[in-house]
Specification:
By secondary structure, this protein is an alpha/beta fold. The protein has eleven helices and seven strands. It has a seven-stranded parallel beta sheet with strand order 3-2-1-4-5-6-7, with helices on both faces. Strand 2, helix 2 and strand 3 form a beta-alpha-beta unit. Helix 4 packs parallel to helix 5. It starts with 6 loop residues before the first strand and ends with a helix. Bound molecules: NADPH dihydro-nicotinamide-adenine-dinucleotide phosphate (NDP). The site of NADPH dihydro-nicotinamide-adenine-dinucleotide phosphate (NDP) has 30 residues, from helix 1 and helix 6.
Length: about 280
């Protein structure tokens, strides 16, 4: 890499994987630009005592992304070692009941957002032969009931990374997918809240049809929020993706992710039957 200063932008650094990644990169001597949406999150990151610079950025707001990119350009002389597209949400709920606005929000934040951010930062990445990490998920390879909207967003993100990997090859810009399984972060509590929130406009009789499925999904989320892997494991993988001399195109990590990989290799009717058996209750 040509950029001696090794500046890295990490989106969605207020909590969870993004926050842990910002701390790890700062400890490793990178110049870290951590993006958040609220001043109090910026204050907290700075109060960590680590050399982290913060930027206010909402991935759905083009002008906030442009402002952040201008600041990074001015601070770094226009050379960026790495961009970590981490910001994301998880909307949960059976597709029949999901208000379309919730689906649009899911896709805007998890799919359009990383494209919007990457477009703005690409000239700086090109100038430094930098790398891009897309924070996907095992859900980007394997779709489960009740989290169809989230899976759709991660499948789309994988397609975007596959496209960009080839489009950007000529400039030596590597595009790397990180695909964690369940990780202990606030996203699980947030998506539980969203499930309730997103179901508010839905017809209660239709929601009731999916009661048992929703319960299976909720208990999976509760378990993941306690038993998921620690955020530091994902942060270390992002570090590897940005620094390995020959990075892989995909880093799949986490407990039991290989079960899902195997599941997706089965004949589709068998795969569906296994999932149906696992998620079918009385409802
Ligand atoms: P968190 O909820 O802890 O972090 C999500 C981050 O994204 C927060 O900083 C949040 O900011 C930010 N964010 C949400 N909406 C926007 C927006 N419109 N603009 C800018 N930032 C936004 O969850 P995780 O750490 O778990 O998630 C990080 C990434 O990892 C996501 O892409 C997620 O899909 C992925 N992932 C998570 C897994 C898990 O099990 N936790 C497994 C696989 C992948 P704010 O605090 O302001 O809302």
């Amino acid at each position: 890499m040509e950029n001696e200063e090794r500046a890295v932008v990490i989106t969605g650094a207020s909590t969870g994987i993004g926050e842990a990644t910002a701390y790890l990169f700062a400890r490793q001597g990178f110049r870290v630009f951590a993006t958040v949406r609220r001043d109090q999150d910026a204050d907290r990151l700075r109060a960590s005592g680590l050399p982290i610079e913060t930027l206010l950025l909402d991935v759905t707001d083009t002008s906030s992304v442009s402002r952040a990119a201008l600041k990074v350009r001015a601070a770094t002389g226009g050379k960026l070692f790495g961009l970590v597209n981490n910001a994301g949400i998880a909307v949960a709920g059976p597709l029949e009941c999901l208000p379309i606005a919730e689906l649009e929000k899911q896709l805007d934040i998890n799919v359009v957002g990383p494209v919007r951010v990457t477009q703005e930062f690409l000239p700086m990445l090109r100038a430094a032969r930098g790398r891009i990490v897309m924070m996907s998920s095992i859900a980007g390879r394997s779709a489960l009931p009740v989290v169809g909207a989230y899976s759709a967003s991660k499948f789309a993100l994988e397609a975007i990374a596959d496209t960009w990997r080839v489009e950007l090859y000529r400039w030596g810009i590597q595009v790397i997918l990180v695909e964690p399984g369940a990780t202990r972060t606030p996203i699980w509590d947030k998506s539980a809240t969203l499930t309730t929130g997103s179901m508010e406009g839905a017809d209660p009789e239709r929601v009731e049809l999916y009661r048992s499925l929703i319960e299976v999904g909720s208990s999976f989320a509760r378990k993941a929020s306690v038993e998921g892997m620690p955020v530091e494991e994902v942060a270390r993988t992002v570090l590897k993706a940005l620094t390995a001399p020959r990075p892989r195109a995909r880093y799949l990590l986490g407990r039991r992710v290989w079960q899902r990989v195997v599941l997706e290799k089965l004949p589709v009717r068998l795969r569906d039957w296994i999932l149906f058996r696992g998620s079918a209750g009385k409802g």
